[in-house]
Design a protein that fits this description.
Distance between the termini: 20 Å
Strand content: 15-25%
Number of domains: 1
CATH superfamily: P-loop containing nucleotide triphosphate hydrolases
CATH architecture: 3-Layer(aba) Sandwich
Oligomer: single chain
Structural class: alpha/beta
CATH class: Alpha Beta
Radius of gyration: 16 Å
């Protein structure tokens, strides 16, 4: 089994790019990267919505947000794999602080700029993705807000501020309510 390696690319089958991860040093198995994604019928809505937007793969920014633990990263990895485009997991740019979401925005902006330079789409995924793009003065082309009623996760108090300021449920082009995955 091949692996997703940070700062590298993983190929599946006939040279199909699974994901391009920019920072980090953790090896993740391909199975973990797509975590049974094809079996999730909810993803069909996202595939259908993005098919037209990503036709011919011009530079576009697709943003995925939602509470911690709802399935944003799994969805992002699946979409990146299916459309053969890059996924930027904003958690990789998170600076560990005392209860605040603080990101290395200069590095994030550079990564997104590199995708723009080669005219390729990019998926930006994270809890506060809309706020990050706003800080970077970048517009997005499509917004997916992921929810999961069964998700159990702690949320920083500033997430409530994010919800008030950006109203992701009201502004999303697509809201995916994912049932919790049953893990063995």
């Amino acid at each position: 089994m091949r692996t997703c390696v940070a700062a590298g690319r993983t190929l599946l089958g006939e040279g199909q790019l699974l994901i391009s991860v920019i920072l980090g040093s953790v090896l993740v198995s391909v199975k973990d990267c797509i975590m049974n994604s094809p079996e999730r019928p909810e993803y069909a809505l996202a595939l259908s919505a993005l098919k037209e937007i990503l036709f011919n793969l011009p530079f576009k920014i697709i943003v995925i947000d939602g509470r911690p633990g709802v399935g944003k990263t799994t969805l992002g990895r699946f979409l990146a794999w299916r459309f053969n485009i890059s996924l930027v997991e904003t958690d990789l740019f998170l600076v560990q602080q005392q209860g605040h979401y603080i990101f290395r925005n200069t590095a994030l902006n550079s990564v997104i700029g590199n995708r723009r330079a080669i005219d390729r789409p990019v998926i930006i995924e994270g809890v506060t993705s809309l706020a990050i793009l706003s800080e970077l003065k970048l517009n997005f082309d499509f917004h997916i807000h992921v929810t999961c009623e069964d998700a159990v996760s702690s949320v920083l108090p500033e997430y409530s501020d994010y919800l008030r300021m950006y109203n992701p449920c009201g502004s999303a082009d697509l809201i995916l309510d994912l049932p919790a995955l049953k893990r063995n």
